[in-house]
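re: ur question from the group chat, yeah i did fold both. here u go
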Amino acid sequence: MKVLIADDDDYTREGLVEAIDWKSFGVHEVLQVEDGAKALRIATAQRPEIVITDIRMPKLNGIEFAEQFVAVCPDSKLLFMSGYMDVAYLKSAIQLSAVDYVEKPIKLPEMENAIRKTVHYIAERKAQHVLLDQKMDLERVKLANALRTQSHPADEFRCKAQEIGYPVHASYVCLIVTQFNKGMLVDAVHIQNYWEQHNLATIAEQLDYDRLLLVVALPRPDEEMVRALAEKLCREYSELRIAAGQVVAGLEEVSRSFREAALAMERVFFKPDLCYLTYDPVNYAPQGPRSDIYPEFYRLLKQEPEGLINWMETFCNRVLVKGDQARERVLSMCVTFANALFKERNGVLIRMGKMVQIQDVEKQLNECRTMLEVKAHMLELCHAYQEEFTRISPYSGLIRNVINYISDHCSDVDLDVREIADHVHLSTAHLGVLFKQETGTTIKQYLNDYRLELAKRLILEEHFKVIDISKMSGYASAGYFAKVFKAATGVTPVEYRKKFSQ
C-alpha cells in the first residue's frame, strides 16, 4: 500500500514519515510533496491508496487538489488535516468522501487512529469489490451455461445479459478452446481477456479440466475476423486448439453454435495439427462402421492371426484419412477389438508388459487424444497377440487349450493340475505325459513359471503393492510370494523393482 503526504510544512511531513510505524499498517512506500499541483501530478502517476493532505497549500489547496484527484483515482481515500476549523472546508471534505479530518497541531495518537480507520475502510471496500466481482463472474458463467443448454426462455436470456452488461443485440459465435498436451493449460482468464482486448464482449464456462467454452458477441457477423484472432492466439500458444461453430444472429441460437463447435472439435482427434477448426455441415455427418468390419476382424482372429497386424494398420489408416467417424464410435470399436484379443489369448496381458487387465486397456484407449495414439496402441496389442499366438501355435489344440486355461485362471490360488485335467476331460497322469511331450516341462512347472513371469511384469508397475501382486499372480500370501520370488530371482520383489523399473 502507498501513502502520499501533501503539506507545505516540511516539519509536519517529515515528522509523520519518521514517527509512524507505517509497516504495521501495511504501508510499504510513503511519498512526500509540498504543494497541491505537485501532489496532483505525483498522485495521478503513483495511484496511492491513501492521501494525507493539508487543506491549505500553495498552487492548489487541499480541496482543489482533492476535487481533481478523486475524479482520476476514485478508489483512493483522502485524509484531511488543517489548523483552520472552517465549516466550509469540513463540508467540502465530507462531500469528497474524506475518511477523517485531523486537526493541527497533529497529535500522533489521533493521526494513527485516523490512518487505522482509513486502512480498515479500504480493506472493507476491497473485500466488497472482490465479492461483487465473484458474484458477477458467477452470473457470467451461469449465463454461458444457460445459453449452451438453452435452459431458459429467450426473454430470460436477454434479462440476464442486461444485468451483467453482456450485449443483447449482436451476433454470437461459440468457441471451444482446448489444450492439446496435458500439463500446459493456459490460464482461462487470459484466454477470455484476449478476446475482450479486441473489444469483443465474452462470457465463458469451463466445460471440463481442459476445455473452455467462450461465447463471443460480435458487432457484425464476421467469421474471418474470428478466424484471424483465433489463429493469432494459437500462434502465441502452439498447444491450443480452437473449434468454432457458425455465427448466429440471436442469444436463443447460441446453443446451436455450441453444438457445431463441439462437432468441429472432434476433428482434432483425426487432424491434431489443425489449430483452428470450423463447422461445415457437409463434413459433419459421421458414418457408421462397415457392416463387414467385425466379421472380418473375428475371421482373422480365429483363422489367420498372422494377417491381423496388417489388417489393423489398414483399418486405422482408413479411419485417419476419412475422418468421418465419431471419436466415441472409433474408440468403442477398438475396445471391442481389444476385448476379443484378450479373450482369445489371455497371455497377451503378459506380452503387453505394462497392461495387465482389460480395464487398463480400455482406460488407456479412452485417454488417447488422437487417432494416431489409438493406432499405435492397437498395433502394440496386435503384435503382442501375434507373439503369443506364435509361442503356442506349434502345440496341438489340446495343449493350447491347457495353456489358455492357465492364462485365464492363474490368479486362482487353488488352481492345480487336477482342475486343469478336469477341464480337458483327461486324467492328470495322461495329461501330464502329453503336456511334457509337447512342451518339455510339466504342467506344475509351467504354471509356476507363468505366475512368476506375470509377477515380474506387475512389479514393474509401481502403482501395484506387493500384496496385490501376490493375489493377482495366484500366491497364497505376500510372505510366501516374496519367499518364492527371491528363491527364483535372487532378489526380493522390492529389490527387483528398484533394479529394473528405472
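okk and heres the other one u asked abt
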Amino acid sequence: MLSNFNKLILVIFSTLCFSFHSEAQSQPERFIDASLGFGYSFPFDEVDIMGSGFYAEGEYVLRYSKWIDFRPYAGLILATSNDSDAQLAQFGFKSTAQAFMVGGKVRLTFPIPWIAPYLEGGLGASLGSFETITPFTNVKKSGLTPHIPISIGLKIGRKHRFDFSFSYYFHPSAEQFTGSAAFGFSFPLSQNQTKKV
C-alpha cells in the first residue's frame, strides 16, 4: 500500500511528466538571449571582501516547452577589487575575476502570464584569472577552470521578452564565486516564432 505522501509525490511527478510531454515539440523553438549588468566577485570565506565590475552574457536558447529549455552560453566577467577600505588594501586582501565563461544550463520556468519566475543550473568552464586573498585564503588561479552556474530570475512582459536575473558562478579551484545582477532581452530566430512568443 502506498502512503498518502507517496501518492501525492506520484501524482505531482505524473502531472509534471504529462505537462512536459504534452507541450514538447518535434522541433524546439530557438532564441538568442543577451544580458548586461553589474558583476561581482566574493570569496568563499565569510569576510567583507569583494570585487565589482561588468558582466555580459549571450545564450543560444532551445525551448522544448513553456516549462523547460536548454541554454549553451558564453559570457564575460570583469570584477576588480574595491580599494575603498584602506585597511583591506594595506594587507592586499582582494577578490578579483577577469574571465571568459562558456557552458550549458537548463532552465525551469513557471509559465505565469506577464511575470514568469525561473531557476536554472548547469556546468561550465572559465578561461581567465582569479585572485582570492583573504585572512584565510591566498589563491591565484589562471587558465581554464571549471565552474557551476546557478540563476534565479523573472521573465517579464506579455511575451516574456525581458528578463531580470541574479546569476552565480561557483569557482571551486579559485575558492570564490562570481555573480551578477543583470537585465536581458530575448529575440526569436524565425518570423514564425515572433507570432507565438
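fwiw on the second one: Residues 3 and 76 are 49 Å apart (CA to CA). The chain has one domain: 27-196. idk if thats what u expected
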